Amino acid sequence: MNKRVLALLMTGVMLAGVLTGCGGSSAGSNQSASNTEASADGEVTLKVFSNLPDRKNGQGLVEQMIIDDYMAENPNVKIEVEALDEEAYKTKFKAYAMDGMPDVVSIWGQPSFLDEVLDAGVLAELNEDDYKDYGFIAGSLEGFKKDGKLYGLPRNTDVQLIYYNQKMFDDNGWSVPTTYDELLKLVGDIKAAGIAPIAMDGGDGWPMATFLTDIMVKVAGTDYAKSVSDSVAAGNFDTPEFKQSVEVLKQLVDAGAFQTGYDAQDYGTAMNLFTNGQAAMFAMGSWECSMAKNEDIPEDIRTNIRAFTFPVIVGGKGGANDIAAWNGGGYAVAADSAVKDEAIKFLNYMYQPDKLSKYGWENGVGMSAQDQTSYLTGDETELQLSVMDMVKNATSVSGTPINDCGPATFKTVMESEIQGVSNGSESIDDFIKAIGEACK
Amino acid sequence: MRKLYSNKKVILSLVAPGLLVFICAILAPICLSVYYGFTDYSGMGTPKFIGLQNYVELFHDAAFGRSLFNSFLLALGFIFIQHPIAIVVAAVLDKIGGKAESFFRCVYFIPNVISVAVIAYLWKFIYNPDFGLLNNILHAFGVKESVNFLSQQTAIYAVLVVLIWHGFGWGMLIYYTGIKNIDPVLYEAAAVDGAGWWTTFFHVTLPLMKPVIQINVTMAIISALKQMETVYLLTGGGPANSTQFAANYLYQQAFKAFRYGYGNAIGVVFIALCVAVTVILNTVFKEKEV
Predict the structure, then answer these.
(1) Percent of chain A with pLDDT over 70
(2) Does residue B20 belong to any structural domain of this protein?
(3) Domain positions in chain A
(4) Interatomic CA distance for residues A101 and A93, integer angstroms
(5) Count of domains observed in chain B
(6) CA–CA min distance A94, chain B (Å)
């Protein structure tokens, strides 16, 4: 009898262990929910979920500076930051979408990300009239709207660039190409000198897609956005302008424009090739302008980095000042935030022109989506100034890069298949067919 | 005591904890996966029931086909390259004895101790066409052109080499323990009968290792199907899906392409495949034992 009692007791203990195991997690989630609520004495905790894990450099530093400023000015507000890099960020964003978003989150104002997010209704609507005096560049808010309502604000203006090493160009007598034919010839010359012409992060897929966007802007000119959105809507990319753009990309690869094994190399490897002087050019967005201020890069390279956009293609509709640029990343507030008012207040604080724009400019992280002309300090790098001029002199800007124009499936298929079409394992027609089908 | 154990309530209470864990952690998620596999759920919002559409698409999905083919290649690589070498090395180690034995045992196991992330980046650098070790060796032998080991055509073999090399230590260690468990008397008897090293290996060691080989083969096939981390870090399944594996593809679809429903359909097929393979292997090995 005693043994029986003992056995029952033991089982009871085991069951209790299992049950508390389950109970523990639910208690945990309760706690996280109550964390975001304002307590009685006016203490507010804001949770910021960011895609900038590096808090000591570049954009992440700027974000952290603003957060510190805000906490200093509002002693009753405590801001907790959780930061993950882009891919991990997007994964966790979805998990949060299912059981409660942090109050302020990073987002991307592009259909491939925002469509699903807005359908799920997890972001709070913002009042567009609040931002009349914030100096947002015309059209920069469009990607963050749905049915005319605003759900987020853009952080940057990104320009697709080809960075080059001015000193290396001068030493070898090379000059910046003004036409596509000149670029092809330049590629040949650089290759003959035993240097990789353009460092390309082909392992990730998206940098090649943004590069293709720049090509297509030169082929289709101001028709770019309409052509792409029509193609996405119809699930058919068999248009002359798109086909020609892919052909140009293919031709460049065949001419040896990218480093050997570009289609398997990552961001850091490609960038290192350029910053170590093993590649003459580097195809990437304007957010890498901070290379010119990065002390880790040897000085004779760092100070000689300049940039140009894809040269004009003979017969193409795009001119030299039609550029591939867009307003991608940004911030939004969670719809079910318990401290929504404070969160929107903080969001607006970040976008006061003397915060994100000013700090960003001073730290050389590239251009904000707002008017920055009043923050010129006089010690900008030449690279920064030249990119600013490109935007200022632009006759048209492309908007969303091609891979982000369609649903998320289209994005993943495109970024994978573009490796195949560029390295020749897939024909251009098959590529066009595959990405068309991914839109349906 | 016997009375206690024949009480149904006691039996239930003893089985319940394990059963609960199984239901909560394995069965329920699988059932949820089956459910989501029939929907177009994006991971957010409300799922819509779409019947067998995901499975129909999966059947035509070239990337998924490629990932199964790659798993198959990897399993072949494990069974016909990694394991024969592992058995021979284990047998040789067993013969060496002394300090050398423990030294080499350690050395061969080292890759398994290093984290997968380190392994993946190590090999990324070894394969790099510009500064990689392999290309530098080739250059030293007078080859001018840099070889791109991770190209569309060769990447899968480059990945197989890494995986086979990485898993080698485990296989070898299990074989080594198996060999150590063989009664030394048998070897003495063989030696008395005048059997040489190879004869002893083929007629004494190998037959007695059969159960160990069976376990190792089953584990190799399952791990070939489950392959994810190394590929994710080394190539991300690229270029153009040429090194895609099912688990990595599942991750990409569910979490990058916002296709949670489709990802779950892949998961369901994946589970079915693993179960089928295990059942088939078990029956094959059982028949042999009889």
Answers:
(1) 91
(2) no
(3) 44-155+328-375, 158-325+397-437
(4) 8
(5) 1
(6) 6
| Segment of A212-226, A357-371, B176-190 carrying the highest mean pLDDT | A212-226
Residue among B20, B152, B253 minimizing CB distance to A425? B152
Find the CATH number of the domain harbouring B155.
1.10.3720.10
What is the mean pLDDT of the segment spanning A81-91? Answer: 86
Residue B40 lies in a domain: no
Same fold flag, A44-155+328-375 and A158-325+397-437: yes
pLDDT, tens digit, 9 for 90 and up, residues B42-70: 877 788 888 888 899 888 888 999 999 99
Nearest CA in chain B to A3: B1
Say if B14 is an interface residue toward chain A (CB within 8 Å). Answer: yes
**d(C-alpha A439, C-alpha A411), whole Å:** 9
Q: Report d(CA A416, CA A30) in Å as an integer.
A: 41
B278 near A CB under 8 A: no
Place of tokens 């009889």: B290
User: What's the domain range around B116?
Assistant: 61-255+282-289
Interval B91-130: pLDDT, tens: 888 888 788 888 988 888 888 888 999 999 999 999 988 8
Q: How deeply is A414 buried, as exposed, middle or buried, from its count of CB atoms within 10 A (0-12, 13-18, 19+)? A: buried
What percent of chain A stands above pLDDT 90? Answer: 48
Residues present in chain B in total: 290
CA–CA distance, B218 with B204 (Å, rounded to integer): 23
Q: Do B258 and A4 touch (CB under 8 A)?
A: no
Whether the full predicted model's pTM is greater than 0.90, yes or no, is: no
pLDDT of A35 reads 42
Domain A158-325+397-437 coded CATH 3.40.190.10: yes
The answer to whether the Cβ–Cβ distance between B258 and A116 falls below 8 Å is yes
Min distance B150 CA to chain A CA atoms (Å): 6
**B10–A202 CB contact, under 8 Å:** no
Q: Which two tokens stand for residue A127?
A: 């009042």
Q: Is residue B47 included in any domain, yes or no?
A: no
Beta pairing partners, A123: A334
Phi, psi dihedrals of residue A162, rounded to the nearest 5°: -115, 105
Classify the phi-psi angles of A153: left when phi > 0, otherwise alpha if psi is within -120 to 50, otherwise beta. Answer: beta
Please answer yes or no on whether A94 and B255 come within 8 Å at the CB atom: yes
The answer to whether residue B179 is domain-embedded is yes
DSSP per-residue letters across A156-186 = EEEEEEEEEEHHHHHHHT----SBHHHHHHH
Residues 79-108 of A with CB under 8 A from B: 87, 90-91, 94, 97-98
Tell me the pLDDT tens digit for each residue of A373-393: 777 777 788 888 888 888 888
Instruction: Pick A278's closest partner by Cβ from B130, B240, B253.
Output: B130
Q: Which of A13, A96, A415, A419 to mutate to test the interface with B (most CBs of B within 10 A)?
A: A419
Task: Find the helix or strand (DSSP H, E) in which A376 lies.
Answer: none
Spell out which residues of chain A touch residue B152, defining contact as CB-CB under 8 Å. 263, 419-420, 423-425
pLDDT, tens digit, for every residue of A19-35? 444 433 333 333 344 34
The predicted-structure confidence for A302-353, as pLDDT tens digits, reads as follows 999 999 999 999 989 999 999 999 988 899 999 989 999 999 999 999 998 8
The answer to whether B43 contacts A205, with C-beta atoms less than 8 Å apart, is no
Q: Does B63 contact A at CB distance below 8 Å?
A: yes
Average pLDDT value for chain A? 86
> Architecture of domain A44-155+328-375 in CATH?
3-Layer(aba) Sandwich (3.40)
